[in-house]
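Structure (tokenized):
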């Protein structure tokens, strides 16, 4: 049996998942990463596995499979660690919806007493909140490494410090990937290169409408156990990291000044100290800005280029949530010649490519 040669560009969590699923099914996989695993936006992700967040409705079939796919990966990769803490959410405009009872994704509406039991350090628990017990979070770099190691065990080659400089495509011939260290030929090239994807495609006459969308990740030193679940409200998103520190996610507004990352971090720190008992000693360890690849319509871009079908795009926001499902479905499409219905709204040809 001939196994297709597939080059995966990018070793963030999405590229790592794609490589793992392909290698596990027998493909001859080479991963090319310009720096180190997860060194792009993956490293700066809040890493909430959030299947029912704010997103275009057309992405629902993908996102709603995320929890089941992560549970599957836990069985396949025993070293993969996920903190299934549940997510406690309360926002002024929250109302019950049909999603609250969706099988496998059920969310509970809790009163103030129950909220206080889940988060005993909250100074002023809201009157009610929505709790998703099946949701969780992960260490994105550790999970990326775990997926790459799983791919390696199935024969994949992982080449780091190997930047893709040019893609050469000629009819039905194998794609040539010109890199900083040599040339690689492949039957298919999967571009999981985030915000770097438009620059790789531009010389081929392909204009991909993906823009960097900055976000802020705060790392804070705090007493262990200060936050028990993942808390999301109109002021902040916060959770405990695997090393006992706290992670908080904030919106990026400006590059500097009163609405720059450092100023927003100080405001968030003040909010945390006010919101949680015992948070007086919380200190700011670092402020990081990540560049999320955001398609103009906010839908993932997944599928072969219409003009160059040997090039397969995998560019999306919410990469942590989508990674295991996208990896599984892309594997089916490339190795089994299937057209996965869940990916239909995500095709690059919606932009004319």
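Design, position by position:
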């Amino acid at each position: 049996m001939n196994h297709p040669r597939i080059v995966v560009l990018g070793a963030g969590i999405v590229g790592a998942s794609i490589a793992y699923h392909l290698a596990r099914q027998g493909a001859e996989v080479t991963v090319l990463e310009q720096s180190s695993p997860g060194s792009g936006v993956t490293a700066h992700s809040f890493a909430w596995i959030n299947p029912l967040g704010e997103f275009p409705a057309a992405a629902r079939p993908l996102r709603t499979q995320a929890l089941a796919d992560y549970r599957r990966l836990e069985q396949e990769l025993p070293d993969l660690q996920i903190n299934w803490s549940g997510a406690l959410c309360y926002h002024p405009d929250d109302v019950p919806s049909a999603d609250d009872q969706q099988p496998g994704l059920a969310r509970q509406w809790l009163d103030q007493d129950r909220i206080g039991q889940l988060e005993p350090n909250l100074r002023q628990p809201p009157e009610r909140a929505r709790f998703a017990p099946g949701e969780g979070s992960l260490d994105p770099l550790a999970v990326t490494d775990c997926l790459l190691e799983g791919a390696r065990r199935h024969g994949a080659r992982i080449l780091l410090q190997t930047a893709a400089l040019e893609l050469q495509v000629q009819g039905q011939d194998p794609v040539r990937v010109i890199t900083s260290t040599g040339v690689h030929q492949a039957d298919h090239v999967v571009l999981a290169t985030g915000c770097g994807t438009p620059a790789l495609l531009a010389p081929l006459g392909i204009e991909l409408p993906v823009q960097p969308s900055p976000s802020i990740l705060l790392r804070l030193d705090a007493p262990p156990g200060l936050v028990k679940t993942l808390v999301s409200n109109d002021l902040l998103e916060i959770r405990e990291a695997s090393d006992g520190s706290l992670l908080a996610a904030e919106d990026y507004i400006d590059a500097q000044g009163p609405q720059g990352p450092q100023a927003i971090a100080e405001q968030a720190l003040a909010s945390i100290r006010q919101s949680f008992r015992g948070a007086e000693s919380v200190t700011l360890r670092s402020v990081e800005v990540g560049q999320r690849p955001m398609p103009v319509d906010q839908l993932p871009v997944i599928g072969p280029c219409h003009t160059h079908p040997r090039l397969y795009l995998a560019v999306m926001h919410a990469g942590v949530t989508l990674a295991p499902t996208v990896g599984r479905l892309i594997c089916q499409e490339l190795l089994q010649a299937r057209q996965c219905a869940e990916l239909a709204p995500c095709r690059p040809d919606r932009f004319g490519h």
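Reviewer-requested clarification: The radius of gyration is 21 Å. The chain has two domains: 5-69+139-209+296-351, 87-133+212-295.
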